[in-house]
From TrEMBL:
Pfam families assigned to the protein according to its UniProt record, in alphabetical order: Aldo_ket_red (PF00248)
UniProt-listed CDD domains: AKR_AKR11C1
GO MF entry, a single one: oxidoreductase activity
Protein name per UniProt: Aldo/keto reductase
Length: 327
């Protein structure tokens, strides 16, 4: 395993880390037993950072992490998120009283005394601009409830704003071969600012595994079914904002990236990690097999300059115009 500095926090986190949305819920059927085996396999391979949220399975993902990391609280870092259990547009959701309740509830489920990275979970820009929530987070940090805080953002504009907030030590962003915009301005500015970059949805909800066809379907409780067009939350959180049929078509055109790189998934995440401004990727998983497949990213070769140019041109000419939602 290789590790990278999480901005200027002093924490070193594994290049391939893991998100827990899938084992918490909203990605179809999952097994707690297999999830725990997957978490154990990840840690055995040197993974020391996991991302979760209080709304993943209504806290179930946090409880699974507590069980898996018991006794390793000092060397396995956990990032969790808050605000989406309430009305994200209501300023009261970000009041000191409410945020303290969210924080204490997460600490209890995680069975920890301190959260390593506490993130605001995709709030509206107006809430960030108001700034009151950052004052609350500063208090929680001073009290030792949280070690550092950050923001999970939907757009580059939100990310750039957060770089001006001194306490924000990490940004979590959607970035993949189908969503390249953050690399243009946000990433280099974050690097210069000492702000870590956590990349979520590195495989565009599975599109970049190459396993889907036009006939693929998803369970009713899978966000790839119920949020395919942004019905429940930001459309960018599902298939990187692409219509599913177009995403499958575009993924087929990218199959060449897997040549000599194990799989499309490994190649896609290798491309992300080739960006020196990225701290880590946080793919999801529901099985040991998926954990092992994601970790093979570390073994595949980087892309050549010619390949990088080809991928950039493909994005500009074939992908960019089909992305929906603000980003």
């Amino acid at each position: 395993m290789k590790y990278r500095e999480l901005g200027d926090t002093g924490l070193k986190v594994s290049e391939v880390s893991f998100g827990t949305w899938a084992i918490g819920g909203s990605w179809g059927v999952s097994s707690d037993e297999e999830a725990l085996r997957g978490l154990a396999a990840a840690m055995e391979a040197g993974v020391n950072f996991f991302d979760t949220a209080d709304v993943y399975g209504n806290g179930h993902a946090e409880e699974l992490l507590a069980q898996a990391t018991r006794g390793r609280e000092d060397d396995v870092y956990i990032a969790t998120k808050f605000c989406r259990a309430g009305d994200i547009h209501d300023p009261q959701t970000y009041s000191e009283r409410t945020v303290r309740t969210y924080c204490e509830s997460s600490l209890k489920r995680l069975n920890r005394e301190r959260i390593d990275l506490y993130q605001i979970h995709c709030p509206p820009l107006a809430i960030l601009q108001d700034g009151a929530v950052f004052e609350v987070l500063d208090k929680l940090k001073a009290e030792g409830k949280i070690r550092h805080y950050g923001v999970s953002v939907e757009t580059v504009e939100e990310g750039l704003f957060c770089l001006g907030v001194p306490g924000v030590k990490a940004l979590q962003v959607i970035f993949n071969l189908f969503r390249q915009k953050p690399a243009e301005e946000l990433f280099p500015r974050a690097k210069a600012n000492g702000t870590g970059i956590l990349v979520r949805l590195p495989l565009a909800s599975g599109l970049l595994t190459g396993k889907f066809t036009q006939a693929s379907t998803f369970a009713s409780d899978d966000h790839r079914h119920f949020n395919a067009n942004g019905e429940q939350f930001n459309v960018g959180e599902t298939f990187a904002g692409l219509p599913f049929a177009k995403g499958v078509e575009l993924a087929d055109e990218l199959r060449w990236i897997a040549e000599g790189r194990d799989s499309m998934a490994s190649a896609s995440m290798r491309w992300i990690l080739d960006n020196p401004n990225v701290t880590c990727v946080i793919p999801g998983f529901k099985s040991v097999q998926q954990v092992e497949a994601n970790l093979r990213t570390l073994e595949v070769p980087s892309f050549s300059e010619d390949e990088l140019s080809r991928l950039s041109e493909f994005y500009e000419a074939n992908v960019k115009s089909h992305i929906r939602g603000a980003y």
